[in-house]
Amino acid sequence: MDAVSTVVSYVLDRLNSLFLGPGSEISLTSLGCALAVALVFLAVRHYRRRRRMRLKVLLRALFPRRITRHPSTLLDLGYLFVNVFLFGAIFGWALLSYQWVSNGVTGLLTANVGAVAPSTLPDLAVRAIVTVCLFLAYELGYWVHHYLCHRVPFLWEFHKVHHSANVLTPLTVFRVHPVDTWLFANLLVLFVGTANGLANYAFGITAYQYALSDTNIILVVFVHAYIHLQHSHLWITFRGWAGRVFMSPAHHQVHHSNNPVHFNKNLGSCLSLWDWLFGTLYVPAKHSENLRFGVAPDGRDEQTITALYITPVVDAARHVTALAGAHDENAAERAAPAASEPALRI
């Protein structure tokens, strides 16, 4: 009975954190906000096209059967269950400590540069600056992780699980291989922890960000505004300067496109700022570009949870084996000339 009670308690705690935590990436409040934004968007579009605005029609446009009944959507549900309830517990121990990184950076600077006098700025100003800095560090860490996963073949084998979705829904955010999740979490700790350590040293005090459930308040605002709609079929795009600063739903849908023109573009999360600075930005057109999603050229990706967990490991191992073989061949080629040279005569 104790084991059953422990399992039930764990499941309820995970469900509570997932759906009721204000800082959760898929909280009920953020999903409700996404639904409201989507309904308003569809209503405005129907009005401009002089179509009748009936709730039934709007709901059908919001939840089309071609998406809700697609095998890819069903697999997203499977990933939600496995990643939240199983791998969340298994990989928790393998993460770097945010506090350790932050304290390490502050201690290193203090030991090598010297202590800094405590800031005289109001606490409100200090916390606001720290909140913005940590949000930008999160966005930069997100971009770097995403860039590496698209450019390094070994990492791409794990990351392409997320891109195997043939339709996009808010649940697609959970379609992530655990190795990809582990790398992402540790890189974020390095970037955000380093930023926090630098801020603590600069202000001469232990500075805290504004947060909800340990989640940066700016990130919470973005999640409630439109982040869920990035994994959707709604073409909501930002143009002009907004398209160079903010990652609209259409920006991220382009990122999932299997059109080679869109490969390795729009790697940011909430902001397209780092993409703009590093040359990976693709500002989508005003009207839908009729995208197809997935990794397979024909749009028929493997949609079994077993294959998408095991196949990446096998394919990644092949890259390691190929690299090891290439290294051995290069070593043999370097040694061959020396072995073929005649012995010196004394």
Task: Summarize the model shown.
This protein has 346 residues and is mainly alpha-helical. It has helices at 2-19, 28-48, 55-62, 65-68, 71-90, 98-113, 123-151, 153-163, 178-203, 217-225, 240-245, 249-255, 273-278, 305-340; strands at 211-212, 215-216. The protein has one domain.
Task: Give the SSE layout.
Layout: H1 2-19, H2 28-48, H3 55-62, H4 65-68, H5 71-90, H6 98-113, H7 123-151, H8 153-163, H9 178-203, E1 211-212, E2 215-216, H10 217-225, H11 240-245, H12 249-255, H13 273-278, H14 305-340
Antiparallel strand pairs: 1-2
Describe the 3D structure:
This protein is mainly alpha-helical. The chain has one domain. The protein contains 14 helices and two strands; from the N terminus they run αααααααααββααααα. Strands 1-2 form a two-stranded antiparallel ribbon. Helix 2 crosses helix 3 and helix 7 packs across helix 8. The longest helix has 36 residues.
Number of helices: 14
Low-confidence stretches: 338-346
Residues in β-strands, percent? under 5%
Radius of gyration: 24 Å
Can you summarize the main beta sheet? 2 strands, antiparallel
The order of strands across the largest sheet is 1-2
Pattern of helices and strands: HHHHHHHHHEEHHHHH
Helix share bin: 55-70%
Q: How many structural domains are formed by the residues?
A: 1
User: What's the N-to-C terminus distance?
Assistant: 85 Å
Quaternary arrangement of the chains shown? single chain
Structural class: mainly alpha
Q: Quote the average pLDDT.
A: 87
Number of strands: 2
CA-based shape: globular
